[in-house]
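Re: the multi-chain job from yesterday

Posting the exact lines I submitted so nobody has to dig through the queue logs.
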Amino acid sequence: MANQYGGWAGKVLRVNLSTRKITLEDTVERYLDVLGGTGIGYKVLWEEVPAHVQPFDAENKLIFGVGPLAGTGVPCNGRTAVTTIFPTVSPMPLVGSGHMGGQFAARMKYAGFDAIIVEGKSDKPVWLHVHDGIAEIKDASHLWGQGIVRTESTISQEIGQESAVASIGQAGENQVPMAVVITGRSHSAGGIGGIMGSKMLKAIAVQGKMPVRIAADKQKWENLINLHRSLLGANNQHVVPSFPHPKSEYFNPGSRWVGAPGKRWGAATPAVTLTDDIYSLNRISFRTNNAAYFLGDETWKYTVRGNGCHSCPIRCHTVIKDPGIAAKYGIQELAQNTCVGLIYGRSFFPSLAKDRGTPGREASFVGMHLADDLGIWCNYGQLQRDFVRLHKEGIFKQKLGAEEYASIPWKKCDDGDPTFLFDILPRIANKQGEFGEVLGLGTGPMLKRWNLDEEKWGADKDTAYWKMGHPKHHANEDDGQCGVVINTQYNRDAQCHSHCNFVRSGLPIHEQKKLAEKNWGSADAVDAVGEYTPTNIYKMRRAKWAIIRKELHDSLSICNWMGPWIASPLKERGYAGDDTLESQLFSLATGHTLSRDELDKVGERIFTLHRALTIRGMNQVNMRKEHDQSPEWIFKDAKDKPAFSKGTIRMDKADIEKSLDLFYEVMGWDKTTGAPTAQAYKQLGLGYVADELAKGGLLPK
Amino acid sequence: MSSKDAIAPMEATMEDSPEGISRRGFIKGSACVLTGMAALKASEAFGAEKPWFIIMERASGMIVGDPSLCVACQRCELACTEFNDGKADPGLTRIKIGRNLQYGPAGALGTEKLGLWGNSLVVQDTCRQCPHPVPCSTACPHNAIIAQPGSGTRVVDAERCVGCRTCQMACPWGMMTFNEDKGKADKCFLCNGKPKCVTACPSGALRYVPWSDRTKTSPPRGAFLLQVPESKAAACASCHVAAPGGPRNPLQNPVPNPLFTPAK
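And the result, structure tokens for all chains:
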């Protein structure tokens, strides 16, 4: 079938590394019901990868997927979803996805593909060159053993710079579960590196100039893009600045909108001074400087520019330059990253973990330099939190042999000496000794191997552990019960930002409540942080909406670190964004017109497929008991303040159980088990899923 | 409009004959210009067998980029092709950033490393709206690249373009693009005076400014080949003659135009 739609490239590439067979599929014919991205990933896993398959088996597949909006001018569409049987989930491997930004998503579309499915296992190192509608498997023996930086550079020399290369470092090659694939220096997808390594796939390069068509009238499209642009805030859709400004009704010190007039990109040539027109659409990129936000205000001096994904005006990655650090530690002058990637290095050092001055910045530079070349994942900071706790509680001393323990320069760690990282990070990447092996496993298998109590690990708020080997990701500390329920639903950290992009937008609670009433039917759908009230159906409607939008974003290719756009910086709109943006963008781009509710139904289908994969993978229908768990720390308070009192994020156990009741109810799932009913599957066009689950006794009674 | 109106200020005069201009005008100045209107009329009057007039009106505006402000998002490229052509088309885009992102204009094999893997500067490649001899226009054997009436912007006349890609080879800065769907050359036309890339830029790194000649100071991007089609060679030769007896001041000592045919 010819591609009758705009948006999609129209083809999915399938590469079998065992047989070296390369085939094509029609995207719309095969995958219209799941859009793209994680949708294609889940569908391929459901149909083709049986439950017993382990992450590093040849039978496991990697699905690099984007959606119809990738490569277009929709703001914030740069993320590629990589779906697979994820290697760091405990107690057994289950479906999961890593996501990387940069240029890869767009370039994959321009190369002619909506997704690349990698199957099998090569018997020698290879890289995959995908270009202009075709693909070639190429020898990578000259790349094997190299870091990510050199790999990307060598491939670019061969094929030219108008390409995007996603590659693994030594950690991936050595099949370390905690390994990443990285594209464009700093855009990484966690957990994927080791699986590429198991397939001996060093890199994928995408390249091409095939256009992505917009189905709608040009003027309509331009108008919609301009509307969307006007609704953007800063990173994480923070819609008020962090500083007082005459043009702003509100400000919020927690906001990532840190680009105040007078701040400078001090390492630009020549330096750039930020101007007063903070709301100008031609100044959006100056609002965010995550290097300054995470590493300290002094980092403005070292800022070269903002960077980030194709098509995104936000620039959440910051390019920083410090020749002094480079000379001192023998590393590159330039570094670049975002969010926890920026603080990767300093977080290993208890004395520097919160340091926003020079020592913290030095450790962070060294950390980025090593981690993004060796390709070691941090599991959203859990690697460092685990490390700090293992060290603090003397567990390393107990578990490592005396000789190995003595070989690690612990004094450097205690002194906050960044050269410590030159010792320990290669151990992890090379699976060197018990230390390297264990830290590369991920938290779940690490706890199991060293006989540590998972419940105890999750009892301590500072460790921020959630469950199944992974940490919290915007849970009760940001969004009460809504955050908790979202964090129960995934097999790795939830990676959902739909909810916190709204509640952490920086708007005062009374403005949030107005928007909540409009969108979820009641102002009670949202509480102020630390002023939580008992659960209600509106909160759970919002939780459902948040999860569905996350999956929708990961399938359409919209960045869930920015959308959905419930709030906006525009006072004249009552700070409202537009909850129909996704469906409008999708409809105009593809020509396949779906309303907000119709498109949300597709998102629900995609998420339900994830749920079904989890049920099948666990061979367990009782999700409530065996999967949707929360750690003990959320039910505690350091000062023993009761739940629902002011100033605590403490949750109440019965209230969380009730939240799950309500959540399962709004999802149309069985309340006892939290599993979708046959009816729920069928309503979403997933009758075939229900049939298969029924055979295994995996439908609720 | 008379031919005198057609002459831009500060430029040399041309022969005061409408016929002379519109058909084979002999130009007496060194950097003479015609308005687009005259050029259009000229082209309409041309027959394939006759030598073409190749000196164009100067452009009035141009886009300049500031690499220290560019954040590499490529929203300019997307605005260019989505809002003008209804597709995101990295091959067609008339402003070019994507090709410089990683290593800069010298590329991965070059020695001067800019871009993400060099000093992080991203160079925005924009059309210089060249003065005479406008390489793309001069090279076009079909006279399909003309000065837009009023603005002087160098634009492709899609009706005349046959898609031979000669212009793409001629531009020293690689700024000619090609619309593969239409089989026609394309180039920056400054969105008829409201450049969409400039509007779209989220970091104010692009500006639409009065034209100035940047062609003499910016090095070419790579290899290029300026061919002068046979049909235009005579027009070149009409100005570029040997200098009999040393330096020549054409304003004082006009050289007879061998191609001039008196009006009937």
